[in-house]
Amino acid sequence: MNSSRVTQNGLVDTRPGREAPPGSGRPTGSASAERSRGGRRRRPIEQPRSYYGLPVLNSPVWESREIAGYFFLGGMAGASSVVAAVAQRSGRDSVVKPAKLAAAGGAMLSLVALVTDLGRPTRALNMLRVFKPTSPMSVGTWLLSGYAPAAIVAAATETTGLYPAVGMAASAAAAALGPAVASYTAALICDTAVPAWHDGRHEMPFVFVSSAASAAAGVGLLAASDADEAPLRRLAIGAAAAELATDRLMERRMDPVVAKAYHEGKAGTLLRAARVLTALGAVGAAAGRNNRQLRIASGAALLAASACTRFGVFHAGMASAEDPAATVEPQRARVSAGSAVGN
Amino acid sequence: MAVDVGIQGAMQDPAAVSGWLDHPPRMGFFTDTSVCIGCKACEVACKEWNQVPEDGLNLTGMSFDNTSGLGADTWRHVAFIERPEAGSDHGFRWLMSSDVCKHCTEAACLDVCPTGAIFRTEFGTVVVQEDVCNGCGYCVPACPYGVLDKREDDGRIFKCTLCYDRLGAGQEPACAKACPTDSIQFGPLDELRDRAQGKLDQLVEAGVTGARLYGQDPSDGVGGAGAFFLLLDEPEVYGLPPDPVVTTRHLGEMWRAVAVAAVGLAMAVGGAFIGGQR
Ligand code: SF4
Ligand code: SF4
């Protein structure tokens, strides 16, 4: 057994020879000692990239249905609140109520999804013990605590016609917080060690708001009358273009070892589907000026595209967390280039 | 409600930054893998003392390692690596290393925890409070070393506490106590860093190739680890990231991008509605 004691004041009663370096006990002059000391016969052997090919990181424990689903719903809701408020101001009446209902529905489902995904759902309110700007989840919880009630009150007053003044205030509050709700989720996933998320941190917020805007445009197109469709058409086309461009930019700027997660497997399939649906939705919106049917189809395509983007980004993160090369290789490259943070 | 601004930037007295006014010296581990014999006494002692549940009786086929890696129910993990090596006694070189939570100076898990369940102790260590954690899981992917994980049948997250309870009673952690070779050394971090440097110098002088310290440098990506290592090969060989950086170092950029994107969204919607009738 260990004869020395390690105390808070350091080591006491150390055994003699405990500092003996490996190899020092070997008879001097023997071939093996020579080799291990001089290292002459060592030849470089291919460096394994990880420990038995296991991931370096522990993968997120989030469920895709709840968390990627929340990214979609929260984004759709946040952007819809803005659409509702602006539509109300500019008299696009056919859009106002559906947008408010979509926002309220999205907000409520978001809360349910978030609480369900907790390991201890009964402790959900522990989130309100602290406010931590270093934790996007904490910031987001406080945002949602303001946003969700506002969106719900806005929809309820719009539907019932009760308390119009309260309704106006609530829609204004929801519209003010909506963009933050739609975008902070990007910081939430990028503020992790997951390479495919962290390395996309400069573009991810733009990918997310574009996806949110196209979802909200989708909701609007589902509802808009012929007279009110023009702004939604413009929003749909703009959002689709932004989504296609930012998503490309993000993948291009990443180390290829990391970006791989966006091209392969489930994430690759989802993101390809998202691109096709986005393009179809934008074309449909452009062509649907006088065609309600076509607008409904393109609205649905845009909503589906937005969901595919969020699930795709989510699964890319999961795949990259499980890929030791995505973690190790960029770091190893920094070390080899002498630009490691530790240098 | 308390406002917890968390911790960022280089700092060498994390306990003081976290509000401990009069605190003991920062304590940590120095794991000297050059003397590890792979007995797993640390794993066992940790399980016993901390009442960590059994996590599967698996045969992984990975040398003598049947616990695979750190997680909710493995807080010390002994890695076994057989590196083929021409000219060595058995045709391979056997590396063993007992891995553990690094108790980072800048701890991502602590920064991102939205409930304040993870806190900095007076010893400068990082501990999850079981009675506060709600299992949101944010800390799991935030840790650049893959330390924390969720205990599935419990829902909460668990990791090494550096035996906070034992430290409070003036005892050393269970793993260090049990380690028969002093491969795991516990003590004030300053002293451990000196001792590790001395040991490294010795090994270099003795011609041991590949010896290096890992995590001892306060200027590294996590501000220096409270639990650091002497390794005999590249970190990734042991399953450790070669140049980890605490994710919250980049959080400022992320918040800025989020703000620009949010304003952009509001303007895009506004613009779509204002821009012309048809
Ligand atoms: S190693 Fe991981 S779990 Fe341990 S303190 Fe650092 S970030 Fe937290
Ligand atoms: S899972 Fe628990 S310890 Fe981890 S971030 Fe969430 S509340 Fe904090």
SSE order and pairing:
The complex is a heterodimer of chains A (343) and B (278).
Chain A lengths: L4 E3 L2 E3 L18 H8 L25 H26 L3 H25 L12 E2 L4 H25 L3 H27 L4 H4 L5 H20 L5 H25 L2 H8 L1 H23 L4 H30 L2 H13 L7
Antiparallel strand pairs in A: 1-2
Chain B lengths: L1 E2 L10 H4 L9 E6 L8 H10 L25 E9 L7 E9 L7 H5 L5 E3 L5 E3 L10 H4 L6 E2 L6 E2 L5 H5 L5 H5 L5 E5 H17 L6 E3 L12 E5 L19 H24 L4
Parallel strand pairs in B: 2-11
Antiparallel strand pairs in B: 2-9, 3-4, 5-6, 7-8, 10-11
Bound molecules: iron/sulfur cluster (2 copies).
The site of one iron/sulfur cluster (SF4) has 13 residues of chain B, from helix 3.
Low-confidence stretches of chain B: 1-10
Write down the secondary-structure element order of chain A: EEHHHEHHHHHHHHH
CATH domain class of chain B: Alpha Beta
Low-confidence stretches of chain A: 23-45
Class by helix and strand content of chain A?
mainly alpha
Q: Biggest interface in this structure?
A: A-B, 120 and 124 residues
CATH superfamily of chain A: Formate dehydrogenase/DMSO reductase domain
Shape of chain A: globular
Q: Output the helix-strand order of chain B.
A: EHEHEEHEEHEEHHEHEEH
